Amino acid sequence: MPYVWSLVLFVVGVLLLLALLIRFFVLLRRVRAVQREVTEDVANRSGLLKARVAGLQVVLAERRKGAT
Length: 68
Fold this sequence. Notes:
Elements: H1 2-67
């Protein structure tokens, strides 16, 4: 009956592998969600920075026109 122990070990190994794969994919989903949030945040911040730079350029251009 040594094949029974081999079968039991095989089943335990497969179950352990499945548990690890499920945990890995759950963690991967979390990482992707955080990555999306960070990408959106960086895009928002860079858009705000571009708007501020554009506003400063307008103000500087108006001052130059007023100085001449």
